[in-house]
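Deviation from plan, reported transparently: zinc ion complex.
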Amino acid sequence: MQNTSVKQAYSVLMAYAVHKNDKNILLENSQFGEGEIYNDFNNTRAMTQNDIKKISIEMKKAISRRIPIEYSTISSLEAEKLVLEKKISPINNIEQFNNEIPIVKIDDFYCVSNPLEISNTNELSPDSFKLQTISGTNADKEGVNRSQRLTALAFSTKDELDSYNKHLQEAQERDHRRINQDMDLFCMSQNGPGLAMFQPNGAIIRRTIEEFEHFEHAKRGYKPVYTPHIYTTNVWKQSGHYDCYKDNMFLFDQDGKEYGVKPMNCPGHVEIYRNTAKSYRDLPIKYFELGTVYRKEDSGALHGLLRVTNITQDDAHIFCTKEQLKDEIVKVVDFVEYMMDTFGLETEYEISTKPEKAIGNAETWEHAEKTLHEALSSTKIKSYGVDQGGGAFYGPKIDVKMKDALGRKWQGPTIQLDFNFPERFNLEYTNANGEKERPIMLHRTVLGSMERFTGVLIEHYNGKFPLWLAPEQIAVVAVSDENEKMNSYKAKVAESLMEEGFRVETSSIRGNSLSAKVAKARRRRIPYTVIIGENEANNNTVSLHIRDNNSKIKDMPLDEFIDVVKQERKTKALKSILINNETQNINDNSKSTVAQPQNLNLLMIAARNGKLGKSGK
Ligand SMILES: [Zn+2]
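Because the crystal trials were delayed, the predicted structure below was used instead.
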């Protein structure tokens, strides 16, 4: 059976069992997720956990009772009768069925449903579904829930259910809000919904990414700009955003004028472009800004760092000629790939084409879409999807999904063509013949937003940030805090590392025993814990606990360790370069593979030659 058919069958079976448990509770609506069934029932009586148990037992009983499942169609009149008899819920948009309403019947239970792929309840398995939660949904104006939602997981086999359950559990364990409790990365302001704040540890990660971004943008010919956070609404009226985007904007009056907080950076960059006359020799022009924009979101959509009100985009606008367009798109795609590769994320591309309502003539659209296809095909991207009609009204675009360590996809970079701005703001350049022409305008991000990207990284790495990004890079602890010799050597080690610019934790890693200190550093996901004992103090060495494979190394010369971490930071290695296994997966929690110190020189040479670092690539 197809996935959807399986879920449809269990959805009907669930509705049957709910009805058997309480004749007054009727199914109103069903929706399916990846593995989930969401069944909404009327709220004649609020169901409880106890009901969930009973319903689950009832479903299993129905499977063992081998009940035939009948399918028929009935007229609208017959359907109304069933509604009056409280056997089915009132049917929305009944006209769509054209007087042939599909009905599935089990015992005395009726359900509006297309025919199932099974004809008997015993074709389903009692072990491959699981009822999960009951929650209120669809509240009316008085805040009273008009329906209640019962969520379940359902698959063809028990194995599929188990593996999906495991995946969900992993995702829950990696929830960035949960990891945040161990690492103190960010918090949400109490003074407004969705306003994310970065605490020092999160700020280090973000600043490190931002510095990296500035460096990489400069290398590729982007020029940094800064633009204001507020403008009078004239600019949004001119751009057209005021009409269609006003409800999502923060607006206020000042000195009799209406202002808006920017929901996007484009108008500022356009104004800078227009500030001086441009010639074809100036193009392409690329303005880059880590610009924070503000958008009102439904409070239900807000989610930790992944969906916030203050969004800092790594935003750039490229102004180029028609002839330069393809080349510029290729460069952006290569840039995106370079960045994703550095962070160990995989990518998926999709081109969105002309929607029904669009500005610009057909020829312009055709040329633009063709250019997007040609550009993508000439990069290393082997395949990509096409969302027919999914483009914005002002131009086609390329969306990039980032795939994390659990295979989940996140909305990330975008490359968007714009026919609207150049027209509305009368953008021009002088061509080789001295004539005025419109430049092509591209909006693009290569990571998306700093808030979301940081949130995705927390979950992707499970908080175990690569050394170059880790807010706390190296913990240095002594076997005994009372031993003077150990303590003075510990201070020396810490100082040597800090002189090389490492973020070193010493006094904050406290504990009654060495193992308690190591455990604390582990919980904070610090890549290396340097352990100082008598032996190390006497021989100018360090012993290490390596976070990434939970292994230990004894008596490494201090100088050698400093060289290793410098190398690891420089190459932006995703995992410790002391792990002698470059293909080790990020999910691998295998314990105590002890790396051998004698392999270090080899490993370092490999790292220098770029053979290590990007795990799994
Ligand atoms: Zn833009």
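Residues 581-617 have pLDDT under 50 and may be disordered. We consider this an acceptable substitute for the interim report.
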